[in-house]
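Lab notes, practical 5.
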Amino acid sequence: MHPVATQALVLHAFDYRESSRIVRLATAELGIVSVIARGTRSPKSKMGSALDLFTGGIAHLRVHPSRDLHSLTGFDATRSRPELAESLARFRAASALAELCLRFGKEDESGRVHDAAVRVFDAIGVADDAQVAALAIAGAWRLIGELGFAPAVEECASCHTLLDGDAAVTFDHRAGGALCANCARQARGGRTIPGEARRTLAAWLAGDEAPLIDDTMARAHRRLLREFVEEHIGDDRPLRAFLAWEEASVIAARDSA
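Output from the prediction step:
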């Protein structure tokens, strides 16, 4: 068991027994870790209030090399994010992103999940509700790209032929992205995406500033993202926070119709 101090971001937490909490952190040095924070539910605890959801800071850990649950001995909060709870749009997006980090980045030990999550949480924290969906989806795709799972969008995922930037193409999750017409004919299933949507996705993956998208396009991009993640996670467990984010957008569209 050895001590580690590292930049960390609180992605999830729940109560454990009478006085403790189990916390899931994205860290800059250890990747995604689970820790037990003993005594933090006590009124006298100095650490309990620092472990609010989406808070960043320096986590002081005692790492158990042979265990999946480590000990959190201190947390020096440097950046709380109450703005993410000030609107449902921000909170739902942030919760979905946290879920993606925990599920898609669980093998990451490079700190890239931590860095990507910090960037997107800060971006949506200052955004208007109308901008949140595009920023969150873009951040999620960049996170996936950082982990080496970025879909092919400018060349065929199968034969690597360059694709016409303006053409609608078949996007096949299992193949790993967009397909040319010849490869699409041999694929099973897939989803057609228009050239505009593909250009937007390419800009997001490259980290470029993409144009704002309307609610209809946001729903299509959100669905594409979820389907891609589910295909490549492969554990058959539903993405509950992400599905709730999707459902909320569908309900809002129906209510405004």
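Observations recorded by the TA: The first helix runs from residue 88 to 104. DSSP finds seven helices and eight strands in the chain.
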